[in-house]
Amino acid sequence: MIPWREWSRGCVELIYPSRCYCCQSVFTRKGQVVCADCLARVHYLQSPLCSCCGREFPDSSGNDHLCGFCLRQPPVYGRAQGVVRYEDPVSHLLHRLKYTADTSTLPALAQVIKPFVHDLAQEFQPQNDRIVPVPLFPARLKKRGLNQSLLLARIFFPQAGDALLVDAMIRTRDTPPQTTLDGDARRKNLRAAFAVRYPAAVQGRRIFLVDDVFTTGTTVSECSRVLLAAGAVEICVVTVARVAG
Ligand SMILES: [Zn+2]
Ligand SMILES: [Zn+2]
Fold first, then answer.
1. How far is the centre of ligand 1, averaged over its atoms, from the C-alpha of 117 (Å)?
2. Distance (Å, whole) CA 196 – CA 172
3. Could you tell me the distance, in angstroms and rounded to a whole number, from the CA of residue 81 to the centre of ligand 1?
4. Strand-pair partners of 81
5. Distance of alpha carbon 67 from alpha carbon 70, whole angstroms
6. CB 148 within 8 A of CB 94
7. Can you name the residues that pair with 208 across neighbouring β-strands?
8. Which of 123, 130, 172, 195 could form an S-S bond across to 205 if both were Cys, CB 3.0 to 4.6 Å?
9. Do 201 and 162 form a contact (C-beta atoms < 8 A)?
């Protein structure tokens, strides 16, 4: 005889079948929110990568090493790690989260970054490390309804507890979106845009700085500069995606 609980669960799945969060196709694998076809389209960043900025190298053999850009001008952060290349379906999920406050994308993003979260947990030391999400300007936060970097920080570090510093760093100036600018304009746009409100919280700490996408690295570099000036000892940038190039 089929136990009542299993029977009722079966009925619920018949009426409300599980659908992939990316492509909406129906599938039955329990505990999964992204279907195998969509997962197969995700391009995970794999070695060889730049050991500092996380850039992919066109040649797919060999070990991680410094890229020409980092050799010429070492970034202010110690290391930047992305999980996947900024392409569909992940770019679509991040866009929905950021611009339409669609938090139903979070379980799908969590599934995509799960292998990386496991590795990060080995590295993260809650006694010494702190986690800082890239902040939004308050008016923008009000308009969007959420800070995607904070929500992603909670997925990257599920055991963070008090080590997640929600408002230690703030955005002091509203700035046009970086996507509308390039090069020098990006850097100028962010000048004096961030401040550390509670320096004691970051002093002497290694900081995991979390953002959704690493594009040119200007935003995380500016945040890193401000955090280091406030007394942080090392910055590790963590993003879900990285733009190729
Ligand atoms: Zn799918
Ligand atoms: Zn590099």
1. 22
2. 10
3. 25
4. 238
5. 5
6. yes
7. 131, 236
8. 130
9. no
CA 151 to centroid of ligand 2, rounded, Å: 27
The Cα 166–Cα 146 span in angstroms is: 12
Mean pLDDT of 46-67: 92
| pLDDT tens figures, 80-133 | 999 999 999 999 999 999 999 999 899 999 999 999 999 999 999 999 999 999
List residues bridging with 170 in a β-sheet: 195
For residue 57, report the phi and psi dihedrals to the nearest 5 degrees: -95, 145
Q: What is the 3-state secondary structure (H, E, C) of 93-140?
A: HHHHHHHHCCHHHHHHHHHHHHHHHHHHHHHCCCCCEEEEECCCCHHH
Between 150 and 22, whose confidence is greater? 150
User: How much is the average pLDDT of 58-75?
Assistant: 92
Q: Amino acid letter at 240?
A: V
Q: Please, what is the Cα angle at 137 between 100 and 111, to 5 degrees?
A: 45
CA of 24 to the centre of ligand 1 (A): 6
Q: How many Å lie between the centroid of ligand 1 and the Cα of residue 33?
A: 8
Higher-confidence residue of 4 and 155: namely 155
Model pLDDT, residue 55 = 95
Domains belonging to the chain, first-starting first, are 31-242 (3.40.50)
pLDDT average, residue stretch 213-222: 93
Taking the centre of ligand 1 as the mean of its atom positions, its distance from the CA of residue 16, in whole angstroms, is: 16
Question: Which position has the token pair 């594009």?
Answer: 215
- What's the predicted TM-score (pTM) here? 0.88
